[in-house]
Amino acid sequence: MNRNTSAALVVAIVAIAAIGLAFGAGGVAGQTNSTELANDMLDVTNTTESVYVDVTGANDMNGSGPVDVNVTFTGLNESDGSSTVLNETTISVAENTTESANVTLNESDRAAYDSVRVVASTGGNSSLIDSVNWGTVGSAGGAGAGLPAPTGTAGLAFVVALLLYAAFTKDE
Fold this sequence. Notes:
The protein has helices at residues 3-24, 107-112, 151-169; strands at residues 27-29, 36-43, 48-57, 67-77, 82-93, 98-104, 115-121, 129-140, 145-148. The chain is of the alpha+beta class and 172 residues long.
């Protein structure tokens, strides 16, 4: 493989990884004229360790910040229709900062709930919120390392890129 082929392969690997990250990203919202920033159900599996919400303030709040964001995590049991508020908190989001809220799930939570509803809202000006991301964190196989749920797609893209690299460099 010559230098030109190597450079093209690196560009291809970066592109594949970027596409994987774009499609694998958790929820993202930034709505104007709405007080609800997020309202989504996330599946709970036997490897789900926690559920999170990350809220980022706008770059320039024109002196109107910080903004209080109310976050509620509710465990839902689809078989009997029951629900339980697992965590309800208010985070204060300042200009150009990211604040987080999360709920940790134990064995009994994973057994009791099929999903967790994430609701984030503000009584203030939602245009002062740049972005809202939410998702799950789970253990990876037997290693027990916590990885955000979206990394599965990025990990797959990395493995494919690694295999392509190995295939193209095999004849050197």
